[in-house]
């Protein structure tokens, strides 16, 4: 039995690319495709990544509101404020997560806010701590979904 979901992945550095399109709605296919994503390093152009997310969501999202989780380990070389505002104004929720040497003054203001007005920004000290979070989520939620996948 194949499970359905709607999620995509955009990686970015000084450029941005859709690694997993919103067209891929099968959970098993999503897990398989995530194995091919690699860390590219390089510059950090958050504006370009959010612009691509805006375009991708406008064309391919199946829901009226989308949750975007922006992960970065650097400071953006461009100002992402306008693109983030356009994303939020469309009813989408933008969570920002800085890892290691991020610039909080860039990420916190572009985040959406929760019902109390607190920014949906999170700072993580390093990739080791981030991997702990990922491993927890994978064990808590991913294993049950992945066990039905044959690949």
From TrEMBL:
Which residue range or ranges hold the VWFA domain? 1-137
Recorded hits in PROSITE patterns, A to Z, give: VWFA
GO cellular component assignments: protein-containing complex
Instruction: Quote the InterPro entries the UniProt record gives.
Output: ECM_Assembly_Org, VWF_A, vWFA_dom_sf
Under the heading PANTHER family, the entry gives: COLLAGEN ALPHA, PH DOMAIN-CONTAINING PROTEIN
What protein name is recorded for this chain? VWFA domain-containing protein
């Amino acid at each position: 039995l194949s499970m359905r979901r709607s999620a995509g992945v955009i990686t970015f550095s000084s450029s941005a690319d859709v690694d997993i399109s919103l067209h891929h709605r099968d959970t098993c296919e999503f897990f398989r495709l995530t194995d091919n994503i690699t860390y590219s390093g390089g510059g950090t152009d958050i504006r370009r990544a959010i612009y691509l997310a805006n375009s991708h969501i406008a064309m391919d999202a199946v829901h009226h509101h989308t949750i975007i989780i922006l992960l970065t380990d650097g400071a953006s070389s461009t100002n992402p404020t306008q693109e983030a505002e356009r994303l939020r104004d469309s009813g989408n929720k933008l969570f920002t997560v800085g890892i290691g040497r991020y610039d909080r003054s860039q990420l916190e203001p572009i985040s959406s806010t929760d019902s109390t007005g607190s920014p949906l920004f999170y700072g993580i000290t390093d990739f080791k701590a981030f991997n702990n979070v990922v491993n927890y989520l994978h064990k808590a939620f991913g294993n049950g979904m992945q066990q039905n996948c044959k690949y």
